[in-house]
Amino acid sequence: MFETEFAIFAAIVFVFALVSRRVERLEVTAPMAFIAAGMLLGASHAVSSSLNTEFLLLVGSIALVLVLFTDASRINISLFRVNAELPARLLIIGLPLTIAAGAVIAALLFTNLTIWQAAIIGAVLAPTDAGLGQAIVTSERVPARIREALNVESGLNDGGSVPFLLVFLALAAIQEGVEPPSFWAVAAEQIGIGVVIGILVGIAGGWLIRTATRRGWMTRTFKRLSFLALAILAWGLAGPIGGSGFIAAFVGGFATGAVVGDVEVAATDFSEAEGELLLLAVFFLVGVVATSLLGALDWTIVLYAILSLTVIRMLPVAISLIGTKLRRSSVLFLGWFGPRGLASIVLVLVALQEPALAALAPQIATIVLVTVIFSVFAHGISARPGASLYARKVAAMDSDAPELRDVSELPARKRRMASR
């Protein structure tokens, strides 16, 4: 059905691949290039309008499920026992505050929204995507403690935002009269079933993987594929029986990693080439879809997007880091590099499936997609210069600065970021 669109996308991938190293020197990231290509083709009608949000939702959901599962499977509890103060603060304090700030400012700027509809926007735009600032998390000039904090936060706040979103969707439906007051139980059911399915799939699948590995039954390639298969299985089983597939995937990944034990990178990595292709497809489709939403764009949406990347993100981060004795430059650095990407795209598409948001779909979709597009370009362009500027600040710090605290005792967590 979409042969022409696939051919166009494949041609763009091929052309970009030919010049990827040269483009990289110009501070142009792959997500930036593919969003721009999607917007140009969408505006020129070179891509059929039949390439709709349902297809984007499917591709994005699969990509997010794999990311959630593989991120969770690499969680090591000892990470939160040894020198994990920064990521713990960002997740436990920073994430809820970011959602709250996003909700309040959305309610003030978009007066047609109820508080719960505004809260949905706050929850959707709370997760960060470290891959969009890959130059940050891979630069050895940035202190390991700071890189680790951004990496861990990005890996876990996707799953942490989903329960908030489900609750806000239920409350918005009740407030709009779309569902009876008992509908809040549906959110609890989605979370509960998702957790149970995730645990069952993770424990059973992890035990089978560990057993087969010890007996030498699995090749390296299929061990990696088995992790990805479990991710899709948890997602696919939870949805039809009323659970959240995303929560199932996240919990399933955690349970699988806990059972398997020493999780190899080769087994859990969201395969760099295949993962990159899926994610670039999502950004390309975002560009295509965004062109059809430009009619809903106004100054309040642009202002909210700017505030989302600055005040809404940076103030909660600053509050969460009170007492850590980090230098102001480090707090600003951690606050700025919180890119919005894949999770926000998929979560808003999931949210817009709810009848309570049907009339507001163009407005909410535009708010989120404009914020993501701004983030892709702003964080992509500023990643290398920002890392260099911060590195100079770090070089001038005293040797006992908290930023320079040794993290060599942390468990090894090799994480090749696939520009998520």
- Largest sheet, if any? none
Strand content: under 5%
Give the overall average pLDDT: 83
CATH architecture: Up-down Bundle
Shape: globular
Helix run count: 17
Following the backbone from N to C, one meets helices and strands in this order, namely: HHHHHHHHHHHHHHHHH
List the SSEs and their pairings:
Blueprint: H1 3-25, H2 30-44, H3 53-73, H4 85-109, H5 115-124, H6 134-137, H7 144-175, H8 184-214, H9 220-238, H10 245-260, H11 265-268, H12 272-292, H13 299-309, H14 311-320, H15 328-336, H16 342-351, H17 361-395
What can you see in these coordinates?
By secondary structure, this protein is mainly alpha-helical. The chain is 70% helix and 0% strand. It has one domain: Up-down Bundle (Na+/H+ antiporter like fold), CATH 1.20.1530. The protein contains 17 helices and no strands. The longest helix has 35 residues, at 361-395.
